[in-house]
Predict the structure.
Amino acid sequence: MDRFRVQLTEEQQRVVNEERTFHPNPRVRESMLVLLLLHKGFTRQQAAQIVGVGRATVQRSVAAFRHGGLDGLRQWNVNRPVSEMASYRELIRESFEKQPVCTVAEAGERIFQLTGLRRGPSQVRKFLKDLGLKFQRVRMVPVPPKKTWPSTPKPKPIFSTLS
């Protein structure tokens, strides 16, 4: 199979030059820069080094342009998994706001009771952080000792007067 040579028309060059600077998605900007470099005569390896991406990324950009043109480059379909607990977000949030939990293990158990989904402590912690809930640190409050005990030393003045 012959290599696909990138040839851009004047209009496409103008669009690519504009979008490599101003497109909101940084990945699309990289792809546009790769396309422009390939059009200018750089090899795919050189274009990858200049842009700071791998050669496989350059190949994917060329394939997207070959199959869909500039619109094919503009598409950025990232497949991100959606948590099963996402559909229970509001239920879990309301439950924790009504009655806060003390530990992550207790939060995991409450989530299991509400949804039937059991998750590990690190997943529960991340989910609660994504909900915007914060852990409240519980510590001992230091109390000054009573001054009436005989074993308590008398407080010494910070500044002493010489007389």
About this structure: Residues 84-131 form one domain.
